[in-house]
Structure formats: structure tokens, C-alpha cells
Amino acid sequence: MTTHRSHHLRYISIWLALVVLTVITVTTAGLNVGRIGILIVLAIAATKSTLVLLWFMHLSTEKRLLLKLLVPIAIGALAIFIGLTYSDVLTR
């Protein structure tokens, strides 16, 4: 029963972390911090997606081969998204 309760506490703490990161994201988006705000928001989004992937999708317990394939693909996709975001911001 203690293990079951610790899993619930872990999920609740991860959820609370996601809520806090969302509040920080919304607050940062509302502030006029210039272009550094984009980096802050993207870093928070990467952190939130990592939390979801590892805990809610249970990738922290997956085999290492899956992670060796997933990590480079995720980094490549993130690089494309960041590049497209910056190209959009720079051409405005």
C-alpha cells in the first residue's frame, strides 16, 4: 500500500510541477522581456514535455534502445521547431 501511495504522490507532484511551469510560461509571455522570453518559454516547454514523456508515458522504465532512438529524433525535431520559430520572429 505504501508503494501505491508513493506512486500517487509522485504523479501529483509531477502534475503540480507542470501547473507551476505553465503559470511561469504564461507570466513570461505576458512580460515584455524581449527575445529572451522566447528562450525561456521554449526551455520551460522542453522541461514540461520531458516530465510528461518520462512519467506519464512511462519512458523512464523503457528499454535503453528505445531511448537511444527517441532522444536524437526528439532533439532534431526540437531544433527544427526552434529554427522555424526564430525564422518567424526574425522576419516580422
Any chance you could write out the topology, listing elements then pairs?
Elements: H1 2-30, H2 36-56, H3 64-90
Helix pairs in contact: 1-2
Explained architecture:
The protein has 92 residues and is mainly α. The protein has one domain. The protein is built from three helices and no strands. Helix 1 runs antiparallel to helix 2. The chain is flat and about 55 Å long.
> What share of residues are in beta strands?
under 5%
Q: Which runs of at least 5 residues are low in confidence (pLDDT < 50)? A: none
Major beta-sheet overview: none
Morphology call: flat
**Count of separate structural domains:** 1
What does the radius of gyration come to?
16 Å
- Strands, total number: 0
Summed over residues and divided by their number, the pLDDT gives a mean of: 87
State the end-to-end distance.
56 Å
- Given the structure, what is the number of helices? 3
Structural class comes to mainly alpha
**Helix fraction?**
over 70%
> What is the chains' assembly state?
single chain
- The SSE order reads HHH
Brief characterization of the structure:
The protein has 92 residues and is mainly alpha-helical. It is 84% helix and 0% strand. The N and C termini lie far apart (56 Å).
Essential attributes:
92 residues, mainly alpha, 3 helices
